[in-house]
Amino acid sequence: MFSRRNLVALGLMTGVFVMEGFDIAAMGLVVPRLEGPLGIPPENFGWVFTAILLGLGIGGATIAPLGDRFGRRALIVAGCLATGLVTLATATSTTTTEFLIWRFLTGLALGACLPNVSALSSELAPAGMRATIMAVVSAGIPVGLALAGFAAPAIIGLIEWQGLFYVPGITAITLAFLLWFMLDGGVPQSSEPKVVPSTASEDAGGDPATATKPAGGLVGKLPQLGLFLSPWAFPFAVFASMLALNAMVLWKLNSWLPTILPQAGLSLDVAAQVAGVANLAGLVIGIGASMLMDRWKKGLTLMLLFGSMTASFAVIALTAPDTTRWTLMLMVGVGGANAGGMVLPGLAAYLFPARLLSSAVGMGVLVARLGAFAGPPLGAAMIGAGMPAQTIIGVAAFPAVACVVVALLVSRALLVKGREEARVAASATG
Fold first, then answer.
1. Which of 1, 99, 174, 297, by CA, is between 20 and 30 Å from 264?
2. 308 pLDDT tier (thresholds 50, 70, 90)
3. 318-325 long-range Cβ contacts below 8 angstroms, 24+ apart
4. 10-14, 98-102, 252-256: which range is least confident on average?
């Protein structure tokens, strides 16, 4: 059973993901509205979208793993506070260079914070509900994306485009203060003792009892390096590959949908709302897929998710623009991509021990961003080349079907953690 304090903490951490989703959507919603007041055409923003991805990757890989050593609270609170400040600063931008700098710093702060939020939510969850609880918390992302789409016309009408950055900025600062007090004392941060990853000497017949000693050396100081050593390299490759491919779809479409849908005959406001509906569908799909993954075969669950995305993008690519049909297909495709972002961190809780969870999610964020980097510039190039909306959207079917192929390896990757737990248990009793 959850204590009331832990439930409130999980609610606030969900709010962090809502803030992130709103912040991510803000830039895409603002871009088609800047050509008038600032004289900047949409295709000039490809690298601005990439800047936040770069920041997320660097922050996730270099700063977030510090939560495994020094506790989650400091990283979560500092990341929220920094996110709020630089998001507010984004509203002062007047050139693409200024947007690029502030979005990079926003990504850096979010990258430090979000993997620790995911890891802490897993630690608070019962063993049989880790994927579901992590999915519910990370469901804040599609909620935030949807809220931004629905609220954009009203916010812009009241306080112009800058308002889309004021809202997540102020929210992030407020969450930082609330989490500082709520995570102080009553919420565990990481209870599992650190374990030395298996080494070549152990595999060759060294003393297995050393596996229960605290980690030392470079791996002890940088636990993320253990993900590239046996036995964790294979499950991390499976996990990170799906994250990267899914992120490529998510960032390409969330960055450019508000820009390309008007090319198919929708108004700017209707395009924003269609993007909001598509992202909101990810909430339902993500929670449903996570519950299924907790109770059923994890690889098959992911294959169904990514297979549905592939089919939806293919339908869009092969049909003429139609608001109703495209909205339904985008609910499956974009909603599925958002759901993938919710479900895959939950998979990490089954692939890796708690001592590596922040590191796995943080390094996964880095690899995901490397894959996603191609999304916004590719969209910008396709828009600049005058390609039709159905082609720009339909290209997303290729990374989606690649996720289906990688999901075939999930069952093998899951065996690694079980073998390691059995080995450590045997060495402890021997």
1. 99
2. very high
3. 318/390, 318/394, 319/390, 320/390, 321/264, 321/265, 321/389, 321/390, 323/265, 323/266, 323/270, 323/274
4. 252-256
